[in-house]
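Support case: flavin-adenine dinucleotide complex. Customer-provided input:
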Amino acid sequence: MEYVIEPKRKTPVLLETDVLVVGGGVAGCVAALAAARTGVQVTLIERNRHLGGFFDTRPGSGEMYGGLVLQDGKGNWVSKGIGWEIIKRLVSVGGAIPMIKRKVKSNHPKLPLDTPNSKYGPFIDYETLKMVLFDMMGEAAVRFILYTFGVGVIKKGNVIEGVFTETKSGRDVILAKVIVDATGDADVVSWSDDPFDKSPPEKLYQIQGVLFVGGINTAIVKSQIKNHLEKNDYAYVITPESSEEIPERFEQKQIHMVLSAEGFEVSDDNLTVRKRTPGSASILSTGMRPCLGRLGAGVSGDGTNVFDLTRAEVEIRRAITQKLDKLRRTDTAYKDSYILPPVHPLGIRETRRLVGEYVINEDDIKNGAQFEDVVAKGHISFDHHYPDGSLEHRMPTKAYDIPYRALLPQNTKNLVVAGRCISCTHKAQAALRKVPVVLATGQSAGTAAALSVQYQCSLRDLDLQVLRRALRKDNHIV
Ligand SMILES: Cc1cc2nc3c(=O)[nH]c(=O)nc-3n(C[C@H](O)[C@H](O)[C@H](O)COP(=O)(O)OP(=O)(O)OC[C@H]3O[C@@H](n4cnc5c(N)ncnc54)[C@H](O)[C@@H]3O)c2cc1C
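Agent response - structure generated as follows:
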């Protein structure tokens, strides 16, 4: 690679803060909220126009598959804390239906597995989530700055003094006592010269793009579904776990989702309609919004390589456009349908992973490993989305611990990592990148960051008892 030497420059200090969170996905938001609630000054920077990161990607429809699973399927909470608070807040404004239980009515061999993972999880309206996150940040006095790209660090010895930012206002630096890397891509880790790992492009889990489709004729979809059900007696039904938790506007109607193995998933009561044309499209409405179509496509590539990102945008849009063209020609329900404006950039599953003081591996997750320095827990499945588009889904047998060491880099003393880029192997990341774990590591990282400011010690020297006490006080499960 060729290089040029940039001229020396004077960079303005944009602001100073106790804790700086880089990245406003769910991990970063929860980290910022957790830190701010301890009373320290918190700043969060996000390059996009909204908070919530990739988690926001299924607006309007609400989505539960894989879903946001906070329990172990037997009713035991694995992850709660600020993540659950966000969901309750969403429920209060009609933006979520909390815990949903699926009941299998059929013994059809092709039906999805009746795993604990697929049984419990809330429906979420992702557009409402964006506003709720803005509100919660404001209430906790987190200073969040959008359209701000973190681009490097200024470091003295083992301590990061600040993060350089690029915005429409120019290049600045934010000085901070402690940094949380919640970029999903371990950007800060890479700038601070701490060890990280990244699978080769041909192994990285698939990049996924999703576009939503409007103008679908729901009446036609419903009659297609009715016909289908007349010929097939198998079904899959979703009912609320507890009627007390269902907001009034949903109480009137039972939430029923009926799903056939051939690709139709439907409602018998207008509330949830889902039709999936195998490999191409799905329509889902939870009653929170009108029926939307959702078309997705995946490609292989490296989400930290700008040429791969550009190719992925083009290939994914082309694939989705072709799918919709075909649907318009072959399915009357789609005759007048159109692609809606995108709500989110590409879904990046895996890029850089921290190589921290401990690297969580596949067996730790499979066997429900326990660690003395546990700061979060998970019970969510491995979803191996291979680059060729194939998917392998496996459940762990029991809940597993996330050790504090997996959030700490090897060298830098005032940096902690949260979210999908914590220290783990490629295979382990297929489970650890899921939202419940990401929420939990966000809370641990944010709380640790704030306590290290308060106790004026390095993150590594933080008393784990003190950290865990603070986490439990905030309803976090450790
Ligand atoms: C297609 C797809 C489907 C999924 N389905 C499920 C599911 O059903 N259930 C489940 O539990 N999980 C699912 N996941 C996984 C889950 O959604 C993500 O792994 C999780 O949301 C990651 O959260 P995060 O906060 O760690 O990272 P991200 O959501 O990636 O957030 C990182 C944030 O940091 C910002 N950022 C990055 N770099 C910088 C920088 N240098 N400066 C400033 N800002 C920066 C980004 O803009 C982003 O907002 C899915 C993922 C994909 C891609």
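Residues 22-28, 45-48, 53-55, 65-68, 149-150, 182-185, 187, 208, 347, 349, 419-420, 433-436, 438 surround flavin-adenine dinucleotide (CB under 6 Å).

Case will auto-close in a few days if no follow-up is received.
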